Amino acid sequence: MSSPPPETETYEVTLSRDEQWVAHHVLADAIDEALDEDETPPTWAVELLEEIEDRNETDVLTGYQAQQLFDAMATYVDREETPERDVVHGSSVVDRLEDRLESPETA
C-alpha cells in the first residue's frame, strides 16, 4: 500500500499595495533577465507574478516560492542603487516572509 504524496507547505502572506508593487518589480526583472539571456523564466517567478497581479488581499505561496521571493527581495533591498522607497517597502516584505518562513504554522 502506498502512502499519499506529502502536501506542499503553503504560507499566507498579505502585502500592501506598495509592497506588491516592489515585489512585482523584482519578479518582472527576474523574468526579463531570463528572457534577455534566451532562457526560460523561473516558474516560481511567473506564478508569483500572476498571483500578485490577481490583486488578492492575501497571497498564498508555496514554501519554495516564499523562499525564492525572500531571497530575491533581500538581494534587491540590499543593492546600493535601489530607491529608498523600494527599500522601505521591500524590507517589510522581507521581514514578513522571514517571519512566515520561521513560523511552523501554514495556510
TrEMBL record:
Ranges annotated as biased composition (Basic and acidic residues): 95-107
Source organism: Haloterrigena alkaliphila
UniProt protein name: Uncharacterized protein
InterPro entries (UniProt xref): DUF7853
Annotated spans, Disordered: 80-107
